[in-house]
Amino acid sequence: MFDQILSSFYVHILLTYISLILSIVIGIPLAVISLKNRYIANFIIGFCNLVQAIPSFAVVAIVVPLFGIGFKPAILAIFLRILMPIVKNTYDGLINIDILVLESSKGMGLSEWQILRYIRFPNAYPSIFAGIKFAAILSNSVAILTAIIGSGGLGSIIFEGLASFNINKILAGSIPAILIALFMDISFSMIEKKFFTYPDIINKNHP
Amino acid sequence: MIFKNVDSIEIVRLVKSYRDLMAINDVSLKINGKELFVIIGPSGCGKTTLLKTINRLIEPDSGGVFINNNDIRNLDVVKLRKNIGYVIQQVGLFPHMNIKDNISLILKLEGWPREKIDKRVKEILKIVFLDEIYLRKFPNQLSGGQQQRVGLARALALNQPLLLMDEPFGSVDPILRRQLQDEFLQIKKVLGKTIVFVTHDIEEAFRLGDRIAVMKGGKIKQIGEANDLILNPADSFVLNLVESDKKYKHISNLKVRDVMIPVKNYMIDSQAKISDSIKFMLKNNTEFGIIVKKDKFLGTTDLKTLLNSNFIKNDQKIENLYNKETLKFSPEKPLYDALAEMKKSNISIAVILERDVPIGTILSSEILNRLI
Questions:
Q1: Angstrom distance (rounded) from CA B206 to CA B248
Q2: Contact B94 A119 (CB under 8 A)
Q3: Would you kindly state where each structural domain of chain A is located, as residue ranges?
Q4: Radius of gyration (Cα) for chain B, nearest Å?
Q5: Is B92 touching A (CB cutoff 8 A)?
Q6: What is the reported pTM?
Q7: Helix orientation angle between B114-127 and B174-191, rounded to the nearest 10 degrees
Q8: Which of B80, B82, B140 sits opposite A206 (nearest CB)?
Q9: Would you call B32 helix, strand, or coil by DSSP?
Q10: Which of A78, B85, B89, B282 falls between 20 and 30 A from B295, CA-CA?
Q11: pLDDT (tens digit per residue) in A168-193
């Protein structure tokens, strides 16, 4: 029993974090590309919104006829489901910059790339981090659902418990999942605080 | 730096429109090196648009901008902007950086070593009258005036030869504005840069500008020094603008007598030797003398002429060497007419006579400065 929990826990962590890292690595560049071209932006943000509107369960299900079942299709399903908050929040953070700040940085001779690196991104960090945090928690919960397409992970224990009405099994699956969610929330908050936070004045409107 | 100095900025037949609105309608002008050129006009007259074509934040529809005879379209836009300091009304400081990083970002990106950056930041802070304790603060912890100083410091960081300023003192209260203007005049003296300055405040234009361009509806109405605008307004718009500065409203009521300065330090007797006249003028720190014979006005002289005369070999009496061609006014003459006449004949000094006795003198430049 304990071995089963441990291995499910391990698979669950893999599911959650691989898809999260994948969505960060792909989502942030997508947001940057969207910033440069309005048509691409409409397409990408539109696609992300569409996926967002579909219930998580349906996203998981729709992957099956296209990519089959198992661990990898599950990663894809989670990835698709959590891409939206990362792209959207990054895009919003990057584009919502004080027009005067933008003008003065252009005027002083910063290149587009330098403006992105030194002005837009630092201004977008709070928003990007909020997106990543939300995506992480969503990733954890979708990873439970993907057990039904054979991904393994804590979801399979929960579903087994539900099917046989075995309360111990239900708890053995859900308590670690809750702990993972709490850990993610706390760890991301700490990372944000340590590396990406300026004095809290940044969140106030500067005159 | 692409330009070490800016010797001229020529704007040639510039046109910029936004849909059916002509923001700039065929504007041509020339800005000289090291001058503070003010562009003034009501909001929406195109002055800011014109300014922004100089650092290519706005690209014109037609016409061009030439700096030192180089068409700026042929220059790399990022390099061009690094040669031009840019200050805007709302400052646009980077809210996520402290003051030091705000000022030094561009230096860092240019690859300056840290010690050199620190040294430069301290230098600039002195120039803009800002204390070093602010370096660690963030923009929204500073008052409006302090932010404006930081904005100026940031624009001076690379010691750019050209400075563009878009209503930099527009959002601060009048008392602080006056103080910032005074400081800016001092800074300007220190820096010796070419500055293009946009404002809607005629008083500011008069105080700061070497030359002033009046804009309305995308067109230049008049370009000239303060006294050109005051004495020879091109049209009723310029006239109204000039008169909106309250101090000028009474100029039409003034007589020559009201503004003339006493002549005691200028009076030279016709029997004096040239060498004595020179000594007299040097002693009184004047460059101009009024020659009198038994108190009656004879003519004028100036230091330059006397020094150029052959007085060491031939130290003759001054009555042999004076200028008869001079402007003479009665004390009751309206000041406005007197100034216009001086302007027209291009003589900056006039003598005021009452029954042929000099009782005062006026210097056109000095009067305008006093009134401004």
A1: 11
A2: yes
A3: 2-203
A4: 25
A5: yes
A6: 0.74
A7: 120
A8: B140
A9: strand
A10: B282
A11: 999 999 999 999 999 998 998 888 88
